[in-house]
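Polyphosphate kinase, pasting as requested.
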Amino acid sequence: MSAAPTDLPPGRFVDRELSWLDFNARVLDLARDARRVPLLERVRFLAIFSSNLDEYFMVRVAGLKRRIRAGVAVAGASGILPREAHEGILARVRELVDAQSATFTDVVAPELADAGIRIVGWPDLTDDERARMETLFAERIFPILTPLAVDPAHPFPYISGLSVNLAVWVRNPTTGARQFARIKVPTNLTRFLDLGGGRFVPVEDVIGHQLDLVFTGLDVLTWSTFRVTRNEDLEVEEDDAENLLHALERELLRRRVGRPPVRLEVDDSMAEELREVLVAELDVDPREVFAVGAPLDLSALMGLAAAVQREDLSFPAFLPKTHPELAAVETAQPADLFKALRGRDVLLHHPYDSFATSVQRFVEQAAADPAVLAIKQTLYRTSGDSPVVDALVEAAEAGKQVLVVVEIKARFDEQANIGWARTLERAGCHVVYGVVGLKTHAKLCLVVRDEPDGLRRYAHIGTGNYNPKTARTYEDMGLLTANPVITEDVARLFNHLSGMTAEVNYRRLLVAPEGVRTGLLERIATEIDHHRAGRPARVRVKVNALVDEALIDALYRASAAGVPVDVWVRGICALRAGVPGLSDHIRVHSTLGRFLEHSRLFWFANGGEPAVGLGSPDLMHRNLDRRVEVLVSLTNPRHVAQIGGLFDLAFDDGTAVWVLRDAAWEPRLTDAEGEALTDLQSHLMATLPARRGEQR
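Structure tokens follow.
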């Protein structure tokens, strides 16, 4: 990246870690939004808030602490030193955790009770319920508990990350000696035990009130729950692919033991002496201790919401439809995608368009078609029972050439991806791990087919993973095409990934790490030239995160030149919006809702002939410098209009969004009269087919 410009002021970047916490605060907003979000969905957003925060501590806070321990005293782009950043994070997290606890305890739990769904404690159980829980404890829980005492013969036990535990003080009635003990709540039990009639009790509460049976002959003085979060970020030195595989397997073993704590959560009623033991034995900074009023680990509410299954308290059922241009070639049999793609490119928008009848069907048809000679595929994250992997195995076993680029360093999916790699290798697929030093994050599939007029290639380029499960809940886009220019580009990129070339030049693709940042900077500069010449000029970007300083500075310069800039971001945004003299012409909106906004889109007015693209990269250093990422340009006028229409909706005054003003996010969910604004995703569910028809 270039040196810091002298024409832009210092302090123009928001701290990325605090910006992420602002994103999670918007998730918490959804848990409080009774007007737009049904009750059980609000319960799920409380769970998502917790799981998001867990990963944030395991990776981002862990990395920050590693820099502090290493003595790094260099400020980030925001000008904040690592130690100051850590202190700011802990203070902000404390505010958010308190707000989450209050939301659950004071708002959501009472509303659940009004709807006949209650989370109760042991004292609230009826005699019959207690009897049933005592039986359950004796038959199903007690046999798998492992109480661990701490004394000179028993050192303090290793506490696994994210497990819920009971800290217990016991006393020997003969000697009066007191002792600390720990019990891990079994993870093979549902967290909230179903009592029937819409009543649930936390499993730790059942265990806590049966401790006399666990510590026989001892007096149980007090007990409380706690939870530790550990550093889970992997550090693997790369050499060659096979060494990388073994090194990663060793590092995954280390992840299970020996990782330092980065957070300690305790029940806010925990006795001070229990807390002091935990802080001392775990070597946790007291500032990293969070006393929680609600039950620990509210991510478990996801299981509760699934167990209740109340349609009246959930989002209306939604069934993705086959894309109309693929449905047109359906008969009694599934659509012939190759026939459809010989006539036109197809722009997919998931989950509104079915993944199963488009992308999944594309791979499955390729595997089963005798005319297909080869399939090349990237895999970053996929589901546990992936039909895409099954199709690739089927293709290899049928004698087709199958190349799979498996990213085994995909965070928290490393173990699963190692398993996929082994499975694919055993089936005869050529499995490679991409380019040494880079993660392969691009979403690509290439099919080579022998047809009467010669070999023809077909490709899919997307913004999301080849995961049928997340495709139902993540908003993503993709292009299915037989365009020979694009498919040749994709073929050359796969040759690069498999180690045959050092390709950096493509006609319809921008490829990181060499080309995405450079290509986007050139596009932004071109918009400035168009504006100065009096031609239509505008920049529109949709990403999950905007952090890259060079691109943010380019957007600031575009704004200073008078070019309108619209940034549609789900999560982190290090840019300050609407600051006089810096970003007067920049608007930043965020959309959160039923589906996780995940697509990455780029739209430039280009003097009246819009230049539009989609692909895998977010505008972050890791994506642009340390990953293989792909953007493909779209030229079909209907596709260009469809993406332009999405930006129009996201920036329409009647659409519910969060608006960034300088560095602060403000919800804009109702109009001046208090009426709810249009929910973008609900609008698309209802109108996308009609809007497509208008664009034909």
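Note for the archive: The CA atoms of residues 381 and 413 lie 7 Å apart.
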